[in-house]
Specification:
alpha/beta; 341 residues; 6-stranded mixed sheet; globular
């Protein structure tokens, strides 16, 4: 039997082999390393469609960019109240922020035009406006600031009035009714015009304000009422649909411009895709939640929305806001809403 000669490895070969493996590992790690680590803050509960669809967009962005852009989602006001987060996205402390038009209007007044009372009657009119000339106008006004919109508008839904006591059936029922509103001038103005007592309160304080009777009611879309369990501290919901509100995915302009062009395009593409999915979610929820919330003890009241719009038209509300928004924006709104002022 012939004995095989032991294989010998020179010191030089061993050193070269040892150097080659780590180098390959280093190159692989570098190729897949995260170049940009950004934050996306929202005010909504983790179960809200805003967050589930945003997370899907984030996952697709990470995959499509090969891990170059990593976005971490911070829901439920974890990084601050809505007004605090608006400041953070302006100064770059947060790179992306999901913000409702009503709060954004405190910084970019034009954004608040979508909250004009009883301007939209249905979703068809909403998307005709927001995916058309009015939406283009609003985005251009936002872009004049340190922030930009990185996708088409998402859906916050039609807002409805809830109450812990008095049932709101007619405009007269709103007189002296203490109602929480977001810190949004146009919503405060709307309820003042209808002789209610609006109290601007940040969203993260709404539940406790209702629980302790600081206010008697509030107004929000049904998905918000459901995901934040406001039905536990309210007895009735009047389907006023007094305003439609949208969410904008806002980006700090400098942070967004630091991203390579191809990454910017991926971000917009994937957030646009999730916007479409989220719009469908909210529309479906707005229908199904009436049944779900009724089972949880919330009484629903159908109202004649036309009587509320007529009552509002008798005040100076529409003329006042037409003067503030300007003829260009107001003309685009009335192309969809019909004559308001």
């Amino acid at each position: 039997m012939t004995m095989r000669k032991p294989t010998t490895i020179s010191r030089r070969s061993l050193l070269m082999a040892g150097a080659t493996v780590p180098l390959c590992g280093i190159l692989t790690r570098r190729a897949s390393a995260t170049e940009f680590s950004y934050k996306l803050a929202t005010g909504q509960d983790p179960t809200h469609p805003v967050n589930t669809r945003a997370q899907e967009a984030i996952d697709r962005i990470r995959e499509a960019t090969g891990g170059r852009l990593e976005i971490k989602l911070f829901p439920a006001n974890q990084l601050g109240s809505d007004t605090e987060l608006l400041t953070q996205v302006r100064n770059g402390g947060v790179e992306f922020f999901n913000q409702s038009s009503s709060i954004l209007a405190t910084f970019v007044p034009a954004a608040g035009i979508v909250n004009t009372g009883f301007a939209f009657t249905n979703y068809e009119s909403v998307w005709q406006a927001m995916d058309g000339a009015l939406g283009t106008y609003i985005r251009a006004q936002i872009a004049k600031t340190p922030i930009i919109t990185v996708s088409k508008v998402w859906d916050n839904g039609f807002r409805h009035v809830t109450s812990s006591g008095r049932e709101i059936r007619t405009p007269d029922d709103l007189k002296n009714f203490k109602i929480r509103v977001p810190p949004a001038p146009i919503l405060t103005s709307l309820f003042k015009a209808l002789e209610a007592g609006p109290a601007p309160i940040n969203f993260n304080e709404v539940y406790s304000a209702l629980q302790t009777k600081v206010v008697d009611g509030q107004e929000n879309p049904l998905p918000i009422i459901a995901t934040t369990r406001l039905y536990e501290v309210q007895k009735s919901c009047s389907l006023t649909g007094h305003v439609w509100d949208g969410y904008w995915i806002l980006g700090n302009k400098r942070a967004f411009e630091r991203l390579p062009k191809d990454v910017q395009e991926i971000v917009t593409r994937e957030f646009d895709r999730s916007a479409t999915d989220q719009r469908t979610d909210i529309a479906k929820l707005s229908e199904s939640l009436r049944v779900d919330l009724t089972a949880k003890g919330l009484q629903f009241i159908d109202v004649d929305r036309a009587t509320f719009r007529q009552a509002l038209a008798k005040t100076s509300f529409y003329n006042d806001w037409k003067a503030k928004f300007g003829d260009e924006a107001w003309t685009q709104l009335e192309k969809i809403s019909g004559k308001l002022a």
